[in-house]
Amino acid sequence: MGSVALRAIVLIAMTTPFVGCQTFSRPGPVAQAPRVDAARGMASADGKTTWYDALDIGVEGRGWSEGLKHSYDRFPAEAEGKIPDPVWNLSHHSAGINVRFMTDSPSVSVRWSLREDRIAMPHMPATGVSGVDLYVKHEGRWGWIGTGFPEKKEGNEAVLASGLPAGMHEYRMYFPLYNGTEKLEIGIAQGSTITTNPGYGARYEKPMLFWGSSILHGACASRPGMAYPSIIGRRMERPVINLGFSGNGRMDPPIVELISRLDVSVYVIDCCPNMDPALITERTEPLVKTLRAARPDTPIVLVENVPYEKGWFLDASKDSYVKKNEALHAAYTRLRNGGVRRLYYIPCDEFFGDDHDATVDGVHPNDIGFLRMADAIEPSLRRVLSRK
Amino acid sequence: MGSVALRAIVLIAMTTPFVGCQTFSRPGPVAQAPRVDAARGMASADGKTTWYDALDIGVEGRGWSEGLKHSYDRFPAEAEGKIPDPVWNLSHHSAGINVRFMTDSPSVSVRWSLREDRIAMPHMPATGVSGVDLYVKHEGRWGWIGTGFPEKKEGNEAVLASGLPAGMHEYRMYFPLYNGTEKLEIGIAQGSTITTNPGYGARYEKPMLFWGSSILHGACASRPGMAYPSIIGRRMERPVINLGFSGNGRMDPPIVELISRLDVSVYVIDCCPNMDPALITERTEPLVKTLRAARPDTPIVLVENVPYEKGWFLDASKDSYVKKNEALHAAYTRLRNGGVRRLYYIPCDEFFGDDHDATVDGVHPNDIGFLRMADAIEPSLRRVLSRK
User: Rounded to whole angstroms, how far apart are CA atoms A58 and A5?
Assistant: First the structure.
């Protein structure tokens, strides 16, 4: 309990490590990993595809890999009843969870089942809410290569990419953001090889933990890879834990206690959109002090509320986020003045640009907004993580 | 028939023009317009809101305002049976249609009914498919201010903005992209003033006509204002006609004949995504020659196929758009060598950037892709339209 496990919870038979695959010049995964035991694969009826459960490959993005009520919950079973019920329920959504592997298959397919019937939201398409997203790494950089369109709760299936170049390539497949994932399997061509998660090497193994609101949760990305923590994770080549809870990222003390158990590289706190100034004032200092007491050296980053897009024209809209950010900054200043080390603050000025087109509804970023948030936040996180 | 009317087809009673409203430094609408006759308004049950039909205000974005089977069709009734049935059916979608007005109301509401039950697509949210989008002009620039979320086919209603600053402001409301609009009404506070469409002044009155595929049609914008012709129209402060037809923008000769009747400022032909190289070779020259014969001085712009996002990694994907663009460029070269004047060509290189994250599915832009397409195409159109 409480360990940050990036590997599968299912103990898999290890075979000879695959060798001879490409290497990367940037800090990144060791591009070698044990093959998944072929005996774990299940042949399709026509024999052309072999399916592997993501749990046999090694999922990323979970804070807990043991003590779970469901393999793709974002909180352990013990959290139920301790944390607010809405957060517990939203923790069933697989935001940020992904599976990484290498394969020489000429095609990559997916089949997956969801936990809720509601596969889309009015302002977020089914591809983002309940779809899957495939990236491939090439010359040290991740690039999109396929989207799985969900059609129903159970039994979705899609060929995400075919005609792939020969040789081993490294892939990352993102799970649905705003639905639970009941089960997810990766399909490769019969006879191809698939490896377990190649990891990051010792220096980069600790994940970055993000905690926040619907925005962090991924609303309203067009597909799962576009949530801003996912973009940052790809760019920085570090694992990410997404603890976004729509309407419910409120710095609740029981959740602070839970995440304080995780040995992460950084805590990124992006809860303001779900809090009013008084609650921000009340909870920011206890949150930081609890995390600092449990993790004396782990950086803590406070993120300002996004600048609501109506704020450029409506004073009330601007006031609402400015007042929250004043409360957050005041708490930050008190903490810094009180001697709290390794505490950082990211202002919102650059989050949405200046064309007022970065959201779908004034609050929730579209893909433009998420890209700009990643652009604004990534450099700060790089600086934070480069300091010792 | 065949005239490009930007005003309502309903003859409205003109009252004293509103005076004293703001002026703009950039080329733009004459910020004066006749008030809509208050007798056209319908009071809400509680008396707080007065509703005006968009047709009484003056819609933009239609090539034809007379001879229509439905007020918000994009082709006249006579087209039925002459043009391919799928195009006729898709012409019921209100892509690009919008209504422009000035009001001093402290709030702007909308109620609208749709023509199809299907209010979303798997890769495009209901807000883009069937929603409405409100922009307001401030200091010479359009900025987003409200999105209407659709819930059902009939009887959607939303307050798009409230607490608006005092004084007259100019608004533009975009209709649903991928659904038909049965009826759309604008709601203002009881006692407020609303004007008819203020127009553009004589120099800018002719619309830019875009003809193309699902991409032009607006897939997959998060909301209607993000389709790339809409972005360009706002920036250039010119009216736009969107003739995007999902899967069916194929340079069909009967449609060439129809659009040749329209006195537009430019024809932008963006049909390649729905054509193979052979069809591009077959139809591009007749299209240009027909338009040039009918409109000796109107610029014609040929737009390359978007660079499919899988093309960075999959040769077959890259080949498919490169071959189309080779066919288009060859036709363009033959036409230029044949002496066709005012014919222009926009290459696709800058359409999607280089991060491979500009689409939802490799073909259809997300909002990032649409913004980049607008960035790439707008400067070319400005140059084209500045030449005499």
Answer: 9
List C-alpha distances in Å: B283 to B255, B259, B277, B328.
12, 15, 10, 10
Of B165, B225, B368, the CB nearest to A367: B368
**Between A145, A313, A361, which is nearest B310 by CB?**
A145
Indicate yes or no: CB of B126 within 8 angstroms of CB of A127. Answer: no
Which value does ipTM take for this structure? 0.92
DSSP one-letter code for A98: E
Chain A's closest residue to B160, CA to CA, is A361
CA B5 to chain centre: 14
What residue type is assigned to position A300 of the chain? I
Cβ atoms within 10 Å, residue A372: 19
Do residues A196 and A101 lie in contact, with contact meaning Cβ atoms separated by under 8 Å? yes
CA torsion, points A159, A160, A166, A172, in degrees to nearest 10? -140
Question: Phi, psi at residue A90, to the nearest 5°?
Answer: -70, -20
Report the side by side order of strands in the sheet with B132-138. B59-60, B98-103, B169-174, B132-138, B141-148
Q: Which of residues 111-170 of A touch B (CB under 8 A)?
A: 120-127, 131, 136, 138, 143-147, 149-151, 161, 163-165
Domain architecture of chain A: domains with CATH: 14-189 (2.60.120.260), 202-386 (3.40.50.1110)
As given in the structure block, the two tokens for residue B139 are: 């200091």
Scanning every residue of chain B, which has its alpha carbon at the shortest distance from the alpha carbon of A106?
B314
B362 touches chain A (CB under 8 A): yes
- pLDDT grade, residue A388 (50/70/90)? low
Chain B positions touching A366 (Cβ under 8 A) are 222-223, 226, 366-367
- Residues of chain A positioned with their CB less than 8 A from the CB of B151: 122
> Which residues on neighbouring strands pair with residue A108, listed in sequence order?
A161, A188
Q: Which residues contact B234 (CB under 8 A, 6 or more apart)?
A: B135, B142, B172, B225
Question: B202-232, pLDDT tens digit by residue?
Answer: 666 899 999 999 999 999 999 999 999 999 9
Distance of CA A108 to the CA centre of its chain: 21
Rg of chain A over Cα atoms, rounded to whole angstroms, equals 20
pLDDT digits (tens, 9 = 90+) for B82-97: 999 999 999 999 999 9
> What pLDDT is attached to residue A387?
82
| Residue B316 pLDDT | 96
Token reading at A122:
């009015």
Residue A388, number of CB atoms within 10 A of its CB: 5
Give the count of beta carbons closer than 10 Å to the beta carbon of residue A385: 17
**DSSP string computed for A109-138:** EEEEEES-S---BTTB-HHHHH-EEEEEEE
pLDDT at A31: 58
What interhelical angle do A367-386 and A228-236 show, nearest 10? 40
Contact B311, B297 (CB under 8 A): no
Chain B residue numbers with beta carbons less than 8 Å from the beta carbon of A161 are: 310, 313-314
The answer to whether the Cβ–Cβ distance between B145 and A313 falls below 8 Å is: yes
How far apart CA B155 and CA B153 sit, in angstroms, is 7
